[in-house]
Amino acid sequence: MECVKIYGIMVIYNKCLKDSAAYQCLRHQEILLTVCDNSTKDYGNAQIAQADGIHYISMEDNLGLSKAYNRALNDLFARYQPEKKDYVCLFDDDTVIEKAYLEAVRNSKAEILLPFVYDGMGMMSPVYMPGRVAARFSSEKEALEAEAGKISGINSGMAVHAEIFEKYRYNEEMFLDYIDHMFIMDMREKGIYPEILDIRMEQNFSAVNDSKEAAVKRFRMQKHDLKIFYRKRPLLYFVVVFKKHLKLTLKYKDVKMMFN
After folding, report:
1. What's the start-to-end Cα distance of the chain, in Å?
2. Pairing between β-strand 112-119 and β-strand 195-203 as defined by DSSP bridges
3. Do residues 88 and 165 lie in contact, with contact meaning Cβ atoms separated by under 8 Å?
4. Which residues contact 31 (CB under 8 A, 6 or more apart)?
5. What is the rounded CA–CA span in Å between residue 119 and residue 125?
6. pLDDT band, very low/low/confident/very high, at 210 (cuts 50, 70, 90)
7. Contacting residues for 50 by C-beta, under 8 A, at least 6 apart
8. Are 96 and 38 in contact (CB under 8 A)?
9. pTM score, two decimals?
């Protein structure tokens, strides 16, 4: 039987590895993990990773998720030279990963896998995305029955054949948001579609728990990435941004959120 290796990339931001749910789940599992640190100050992560025998990269500042992923991918291919059918798995630092996840990935042959990821509002990934506007599925059953060419999902927990990452790198014009959906859109153009991995994960998605001030700051950053994602569909960009303004206005009960 072919031995499939699993490589992991976990990006951490302004947090100690001891406080990272994903790191605590992964550090003793059968995965070749790379931690890429986007923190703006020293949390002692280099020493923690070294003590655990985990490969560590410091970006020395917050240069954005796309640059962190690309740096880690370049390092991974130079260091390990993975086989085409090995998997590269991506993780946020606040995702809880069960042991069953790695076994399920190892036993799959899909080119891209998306597990079920839940946040405080319910199932946040995968999402229904027939075009470039995402909507949450109402149930896992609905997601499993959807056409592969109409689903997308977040990066955390996404597993990708190493063969894809031999040639693909993330668009570094984008800082943080929608780089996962851009990846799926780029794969659709190549006729490659994700499959859903029937494994459940939990995530503390910051946007659910953000203060109003943090939400304003995050949304201003997000609009930059959305402009790039909708570059060829400018009208759709304005529609999506308007809806997000409205959602924040209702969430924080502050009409000023329509203009931030």
Report:
1. 56
2. parallel
3. yes
4. 6, 7, 8, 89, 102
5. 9
6. low
7. 56
8. no
9. 0.92
